[in-house]
Amino acid sequence: MIIVYPNFMRISVVLSFLIALAITCSIPTNKPEELVVVEQNWDEAQKLAEKYDLLILMDFYTDWCGPCKVFDAQLQNQEFADSLAAHYLVFKYDAEKKDSFNLALKHHVTSYPTYIVSTAKGDIINKQYGRFEETPESLAKFFQFLHQGVEGHEQKKYLTGITKDTLSFPQFYVEHLNREKKYEVKDWEAYWQEHANLQTETEFAVLLGLGGPESVYANLIRDRNAYEQRFGKADVYHALEYHCHQQLENAILSQDSNKFAAALTQAEQLFNAEDADRFIPEYKELFWVETERWDLIANQVKANLKAGNLSRNDLNRYAWKIQEYSNDLRADELALHWMDSLTQIDSSYAYLDTYAWLLYKDGQRQKALTTIQSCIRQGEKMGENMAFSKELETVLNSEI
Fold first, then answer.
1. What DSSP string runs through 260-285?
2. What is the distance between the alpha carbons of residues 374 and 372, in angstroms, rounded to a whole number?
3. Which residue intervals of 56-198 are DSSP H helices?
4. How far apart are CA 143 and CA 157, in angstroms?
5. What is the pLDDT along the chain (400 residues), one digit of tens a residue?
6. Do residues 81 and 75 touch, judged by C-beta distance below 8 A?
7. Distance, CA of 63 to CA of 395 (rounded, Å)
8. What is the pTM (predicted TM-score) of this model?
9. What is the DSSP letter of 308?
10. What is the Cα–Cα distance from 29 to 222, expressed in whole angstroms?
11. Quick one: CA dihedral 159, 71, 104, 101, positive or negative?
């Protein structure tokens, strides 16, 4: 099925500039007049791409994927479609449809949307995970990805580890990815005992889909540049990111400070800047909660407050955790002080609720009762379910 999208809307001058700036390579002379979009038929996509001397933008999606539909809507934008048509044919592939040559399995796609740039002959140039958004920043990033695809093709920089062959995967892997049956650990262990060198495309796909033992990740880290040339930076990073998360989560469960420090150091080295800023503080907090280091959590909150980079909701979240789990009197006192100050400038029912529970924990029952009653009144006006807050009110009424 081939679809050519007509003109439905125009994008802003700013976005037009970003698009024009992003794609500057030479345009094939025999390209079609409008963007060609092929649904599900890979052979047809390859034939048309070869006919028009175009690259193939593979769009892996599912019917239930909301972010995938944003890209579909943007394809109906004439300027966007024309910019794509200069170098690309769009191949849309529903990753959950069963067919004889399952491209999602072949390219180990398990999150949506995922975009892959391929030549007409099936040489893979690069890959991008993540949602597509109709913002100048998102469009600029997306067209940078497409521009890199065109440059890679002109320089014949193809991923050497991705073959054009149909792959044979272990049965437990296929069943797990198709949600037919959860894999058994013994099958996973037996597989990696025979494939620990991580040489083939199939082995790398299993690593991405189900993870691997420590020795395999050690090889991946040691020879990262070589693996990136074979399988692409996006997938190598994806594998290492998964490994970091697993190591950090295992260290937290073990409550072993040395193990957590080692996992944290490795994550700081392997995470990109965006993920490091997002995940490192979260994992530190989880470890402190698990090991009951409320003094460290309190110090972190104080530092964030002083720096002015802690939102009211985050402050409330920290205070609630201390209220619920802490046995550190100093941390309890600090949380009580934070919520006392916060509720004086913002008496939202959620903040009053946390403050009331902290007052109760501190033994200030009368003040806790007054605070929770104010919280309940506000919450009910907003149509919120205040059953949990009313439990505290009942307890306080029985104790005063």
1. HHHHHHHHHHHS-HHHHHHHHHHHHH
2. 5
3. 66-75, 78-85, 103-106, 136-154, 171-177, 185-194
4. 18
5. 344 333 333 344 334 434 444 445 555 567 787 899 999 999 999 999 999 999 999 999 999 998 899 899 888 889 889 989 999 999 999 988 866 458 888 888 888 999 999 999 999 999 999 877 778 888 888 999 999 999 999 999 999 999 988 888 999 998 888 888 899 999 999 999 999 888 899 999 999 999 999 999 999 999 999 999 999 999 999 999 999 999 999 999 999 999 999 999 999 999 999 999 999 999 998 999 899 999 899 888 988 888 888 899 999 999 999 999 998 999 999 999 999 999 999 999 999 999 999 999 999 999 999 999 999 999 999 999 999 999 999 999 999 8
6. yes
7. 49
8. 0.78
9. T
10. 44
11. negative
Q: Which of 113, 117, 62 is nearest to 89 (CA)?
A: 117
Three-state secondary structure call for residue 31: coil
* Cis before 113 (ω within 30): yes
Q: b/e per residue, 190-201, with b = 16+ CB within 10 A?
A: ebbeebeebeeb
Please answer whether residues 67 and 112 qualify as being in contact, where contact means their C-beta atoms are separated by less than 8 angstroms.
yes
CA 373 – CA 353 distance, rounded (Å) = 9
364 is written with which tokens?
């200030």
Q: What is the sign, positive or negative, of the torsion defined by CA atoms of 382, 384, 388, 394?
A: positive
Residue pair 112/95 in contact by the 8 Å Cβ criterion: yes
Cβ pair 286, 252 in contact under 8 A: yes
d(CA 265, CA 286): 16
The closest of 34, 104, 7, 10 to 65, measured between CA atoms, is 104
Name the DSSP class of 328. -
The H or E element spanning position 116 is strand 114-118
Q: What is the DSSP string of 47-96?
A: HHHHHHT-EEEEEEE-TT-HHHHHHHHHHTBHHHHHHHHTTEEEEEEETT
Identify the CA nearest to 53 among candidates 81, 91, 27, 25.
27
Please give the angle made by the CA atoms of 250, 256 and 260, to the nearest 5 degrees.
60
At 38, which helix (H) or strand (E)? Answer: strand 36-39
Which residue in this structure is represented by tokens 């540049």?
Answer: 225
